[in-house]
Records
---
Amino acid sequence: MDLDRALSISAAGMSAQSTRLRVVAENIANRDSTGQSPGAEPYRRKTVTFASRLDRELGAETVRVARLGTDQRDFPETYEPGHPAADARGYVRRPNVDSMIENMDMREANRSYSANLAVLETTRGMLLRAIETLR
């Protein structure tokens, strides 16, 4: 039944975006997590990569999380000679988490999750109306 396919496809999208929201929340929570000693690496921003997957049982393409990775951009440095993680020059390496990027990712994931939820709710309503009609 096509309505079952719509439910499954929407559920896969919601699952993928839920993972993305969790990773964004982790990045935001750790945006100030520096190393504990000089030269120690601070928190490195995590990333999510999606891929489409053919679900043979459904006969449709669905989205899935292909990989959780890390952002390899350089760490910004701030001059804080009193910090425990400061190097010999007095600089502390900060996490490569940009709050603006995380907020944009969060909004996009939230909108995508909401769109999939709306499809799921509409499909559920159609199924309920079909059941009521059959009674």
Note: The two ends are 19 Å apart (CA to CA).
---
Amino acid sequence: MIRRVLTLGLPAVWGAVAITYKLACPLAREESLGARIVTSAVFFAVGTGLIFHARRSLLRELRQVREVAGAAQNVLLRPLPPRVEGLALAAGRLSASRGASVGGDLYEVVATDHGVRVVMGDVRGHGLAAIGTVAAVLGSFREAAHDEPELPLVLRRLERALARHLRERARAEHPACGGDPPKTPVSEEFVTVLLLEIDRDGGISALNCGHPWPHLLSGTARPLTDSDPLPPLGVFPLPADLPVLGCGRLLPGEALALHTDGMEDARDAAGTFFPLRAALTDAARVPPVSPQGVIRALYAQLLRHTGRLPTDDAALLVLRNDRTRVPPQQREAACAARPAMELSGRRRDERRR
């Protein structure tokens, strides 16, 4: 309440000072050069005070908007747990919007009855306009990942959620609603989506709609596969047949690095692309691969390479397989050895007889 009173009252005080000086001060009515200089100085001070007050108010409102946007983004891209079903996780994102953490990248990892399911995606564009699309895709994935037994069914749920969101946006942005023409028409919206499923044995299944393939980190970094992806969601309808691609196994100690195209498309001042694969190889050279270490190393190298914020959002997600066979406990080993000892004793007795 006090802040609101100050916000409204200070401009009135500055205005009252200027009017009082002009009407009540005899110096303001003189025509001499000195009187004019003093009058100009008074009005300059009043104007400067109003400008600084307006600037402070605008900066405060901008800070509040950014805090709200960042909170919304953190709700959508909630922090991932450090471990999910024996997989160590780490994720990071770098927004292209200066001074904000809002972007169009999305990711999620959930443990389901069908295995650990992962989504990585990239909405066309960035900033506040991308939040609605991110919310539609992520919300659909978090439900479908548990409900649907097969990856193709999960992908079709995402497609329907995106189509429904775009239809609602098209109605809201129609000229009849009185809004300004959108910078990004709905007809040009699309989302790249990568779906992965990692079973209990480390087997990797994938469906890819226009997204960069992840890299397998095992001493070096290499693409998980070189298969051609499907078109991004929103560009064309999904085909009737969606064959799931088997991508081998993620062995204990190995890691996967999923990323958006903002990582590999980043350029320096000379136009040279960021060497993503070489940077991943350097980060994974010494086993075991640390997901957090890979995140820190990659973003540090990316910022050194570009010398500024990238022109597109850049997200990175690293998963390491920590599933190892648990050695038997001493009690289990003793129980397992007791029948063998009893059998050996019976055989010795038989030989004596």
Note: The two ends are 102 Å apart (CA to CA).
